[in-house]
Write a structure and sequence with these properties.
Low-confidence stretches: none
Keywords: Hydrolase
Radius of gyration: 19 Å
Structural class: mainly alpha
Catalytic activity: queuosine 5'-phosphate + H2O = queuine + D-ribose 5-phosphate
Order of helices and strands: HEHHHEEHHHHHHEEHHEHHH
Pfam families: Q_salvage
InterPro entries: Q_salvage (IPR019438)
Enzyme class: hydrolase
Strand content: 5-15%
Length: 338
Amino acid sequence: MEKPLCPRESGQFVSEHSRDVFIEEGGVQEVAEMLYRLRHSEALTASGWKKANPLLPETTENALNWVFVVDTMNFSFWPEKEAEQCEVTYKGTTYTGYMTLCASITRAVEEGVPITDPKYFSQMSVEELGLVLRSDNEIAMPMLQERHQALTEGGRVLLEHGGSFRSFISQAGNDAQKMVELIVEKIPSYRDEATYEGRRISFYKRAQILVADFWGVMEARGEGSITNMDWLTMFADYRVPQALVYLGVLRYSDTLMQVLKNGELLLSGDRREVEIRGCSIWSVELIKERLQKLVQERDGQTCDINATVIDFYLWPFAKEHHKEMAHIPIHHTRCIYY
């Protein structure tokens, strides 16, 4: 079987054949200009990453295993009805969406549950995980069975490779590309692939986030340096594409817009779902290239802002501007990949 295109090549291939999602040149330029103005701000650094992850444990080893647990279950938080959100309150702050997962894992650690120990989470029961992920209200976190399967499977892989995320990932050296390839090869739940126009493609959203979070933990603590970070793309989910449409970078066809406004569920691998994700990846690559060009032309310097950092900026941006973006529908796909 042919190897799938890597995420960047997949994004380019999809954008060249897309029928319902289009990249707008003007929007790419505008966002590049916006990021150029922010180029010296903390928002576009690993410190910005740390700020966006306030629930991370202090010690590096605990933080790395925490990141593995969270990223292995980092999928499908959108509610069936907007008004009915799963909520988790931790230290006086009530969280929704992805942050409910972070809060519930940190809460469990505080309650003495060894949730970041692979020996424990590789064999925990569905009921035990349900207790860890319990909501403050009657709305449960979706896909408990799938989260349990992904986490126990991931835990068993870590036990086979030294018993911690750090020992597992160290097999790839310090190379971001090799890290993604290792994760995808060894842990099936991370194999985020599809077939589009007769080609096997990949997005590897969670695998790339896991590597980026590893980088974020190490950078924020001044430990080690990861090479080849520029191989990573943005993380193709449902929140960032909405921001890209809002910012004029992506445009949906009238037909697709109507389908999304009607609340139609798109299956994982559906052509339209693949086009939303693929064009998101390629549009951020174009923004990154344009930004690097602006820095070179105007400042005479090289720009090391990569697609990961741009994603780390766009995701919180989408959360902060969700009211202004409410008229742009998010695509809904229930799956373990994002």
